[in-house]
Amino acid sequence: MREVTVLVGGKAGDGINSAGAMVAQLLNHLGYSVYVSFDYPSLIRGGHNFAVIRGSDGAESPGACRENVDFILALDQATVEKHKGSLNPASAIIFTAGPVKSAGMGVPVSEILAEEHAPEIMGNSALIGGFAKAGGIEWEVVEQVFRTHIPKGTDLNLKVAKRAYDLLTPALKISPLSRPARPLLTGNEAVGLGLVRGGLDAYVSYPMTPSSSLLHFMAEQKDRFGITVVHPENEIAVMLMALGFAAAGKRTAVGTSGGGFCLMTEGLSLAGMAEIPVVILMSQRTGPSTGLPTYTGQADLRFVLHAGQGEFPRLIVAPGNTTEAVCWSARAMELAWRYQVPAFILVDKTLSEGTYSTDISEPANPPPAEIIPADKNQPYRRYADTPSGISPPETYGSAGSVIKVNSYAHDESGITTEEAPLVKQMAEKRMRKGQALASGLANYSLVSVSGTADASTALLCWGSTHGVCTEVAAIHGLRVVRPIVLSPFPAGPVKEALAGVTRLIAVEENSSAQLAGIAQGYGIEVQDTILRYDGRPFTPEDLSRQVREVLS
Amino acid sequence: MTGRNLITGAQNTWCPGCGNFTIQHALKNILAGMEKEGKSLDNVVLVAGIGCHAKIADYLNINSFYSLHGRTIPAATGIKLANPDLTVICCCGDGDCYAEGLDHLIFAAKRNIDITVIVHDNRVYGLTTGQYTPTSPLGFKGKSTPLGTPEYPINPLELMLASGATYIARGYTRKMQQLESLIAGGIAHRGFSIIDVLQICATFFPVTDYYSPRVYDLENHDRSDFSAACTRMREWDYSGDAKIALGAFYERRFPTFDERMAKTPLPPGEREDRILDLLRTRT
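^ Those are the sequences you sent over. The predicted structure of the assembly is below.
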């Protein structure tokens, strides 16, 4: 088999995430393109957690999990009971013998640990060893993955794994593919690496699922990358602190989810008026309000597009997987600083916390900003009006410049004004930056087209549904058109990508088809919508079923 | 830039008799003194909130960040962390930082970030034309409380002491020389300093006749003594008839947030290698 799905389930605190990561690395080292989704309720201990690891032989990470699974690794009884309905006829259940009662392959975990004098924490290694044998994976691959990814107690873990490996028998053969292993990154890690590539100096964030793992990643890696990481008192402080960093010359990003972003909007509007660049990771979860903290959604596009009082240009990029997240996070940083505008990286739980095989071979960074330096013979004017609307930037501490940053309507030097002609002039200056940004974006490929390129029926989607839409399009012979940049909206490139399409179906994880509404505003007709808003991502089976219904 | 005119050409719109003039004048003298000592004003940043006080950002000809109502301190914290060589001064109002932005004030004190906060405490909202603030006395009749506010004021000095501020002072706009030295002391102090300035609002709360007979200078006071500072801070509760002490109540040296957050920058061009190192651990 060249397409495999493994489910690892247990209680919160059982180490499901790390067991899932090991299974993912086994598939990675067999040459598969991997996607891992982690499903967990909002609690610390107990409950039912499961990771679904999928390997496919496609060129890129599938980005979605199938409903049916080939292997179940059950650390508790609930995993067997809840998921036995999703087994394929040939599927194998590998379980902890004793605490879990099931048909299938029991691994005597406590006996193995006792005989090897291994601590309880190594129990998952036994199940992983058992799984490797059940999947017909060569022991050398298991050993290589353990040596790379379990740096502590490697030999003992391997002994434990080998005991289970020797006990079990192959059930389904996961065929090795002749491809090298690739980095496996979560969406948030990919955003982090992209920001670092884009020149990040400081990351400021208040924890909120599903953005928190970027805060954790940055805090853990801050010395590696030479960045400052701050966790302030709330999201209002996050945004204002970031603007302070930026005004003093540091490239800064913030991260949050919808509720936290509500608190950031006054600061966002300040960024617009005061022309202070900032990059905002906005990772959507199911709303409104507290909603479903640990589940996904795409219902904040309109919010991010319109957040903040008044009018000012903003960049919104919505990467579809980790490869795009690395690339577009770096670009978002560069573009925010070049055009002195806020830039959003709009993702969701599926991408933020999902793990993907990632291609980082192309840095694809834009060239550094061509900054027109301030004329040192003239008094510095922070908001000097220019044809592009972009004022020569100077930051606090710059010799000989008085830098006046202002949230009020202001003149070119940054002094408050209420004079009507000046207010109009400066509003137009700011809006011209939006036009400059739109022109600057023309250097990039802003719309992804996948599936059957000449099909007359297309799926219109954005963000993390890239994988599932592409997979379903292949089944039905459809085209997939996905704008990666959502503001300034690339109406021209979207229309080009839709040339020859007579039927357009919007696929979104919200209840009001937000992208479809925006597209319609640019004269792009959407004939049908397929919407999901129960907090769960589309599965290929579910989407395929709904596409079939729409097309029938 | 040296020898600059410290006042911009912006038209001043404070009311005649406004205490803000005194604070501006004190700051101007301090800035001139800094320049005289050879310190470049290019490394000074003034952060202001929103309210009458904040117009000082337009009037003083130095780097400024004219922020949002209640949001001086987080912006100032970011500026200081970004470049610890900068001298960061926050001018904020009582509504500004005791109401809208109280959380930031407490956290700045808790962190001991090396910034100086000057609270233009006129105990009334001026720019919104006369409502009670967190430090208005009990019974204050404002536009939102025509029968008198039913709330006791907070005592900001006591709050700051409890929160970990390492320089806490109170000044009065009718005593400019003392005010100037208290602000200068706050700027010189390494750590979080706050100067609560009893500022006359000529239009909405002109209480010179209340303050002037009651104020006195702190003398024979050990500003390193926490308990003594607390006792002196509690003499007047911002509402009653007690004497009002002026001066520096508390000061101590303690590691600052910017010192604790100091980082080592990477050699240029090193980042891509570090990224590749990390990716190897994920493969």
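Chain A has a mean pLDDT of 95. The two ends of chain A are 32 Å apart (CA to CA).

Shout if you want it in another format.
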